[in-house]
Amino acid sequence: MKLFNDTFNTLEKSLNYASEKNRAIANNISNVDTPGYKAKDVVFKDHLNRAEASLSAKKTSHKHIDFQNRDSFSYNTTTNNSTTYNHNGNNVDIDKEMSSLAQNQIYYQALADRMSGKFRSMESVIKGGN
Asked: Can you give the pTM of this predicted structure?
């Protein structure tokens, strides 16, 4: 028996992504003055995975994207080796990192609020609406 629907799984994976992204941003900020350090970022393997959970579609051609394949939700940590902002070979842009951190914190909080709301709804059903 499946206790949770796909929404819980998608929210969990999204929270994991936001946590990993926060970790990468924190590492970048803490290494802003480290000589030779290259900034890291966490990106989705396929940007459609975020929206895929809320889509339902009928495939009318073999060329269409399969919307039922939700196991491909993944992200990768990448390193930007192509730039250098500082004289010491470091490429961390502190303004960009602080902006990304704020954006990621808002994203994480929205996901956590949504997850909390889902659990409150389940609690209400279990208690019989009281």
From this structure: 0.71
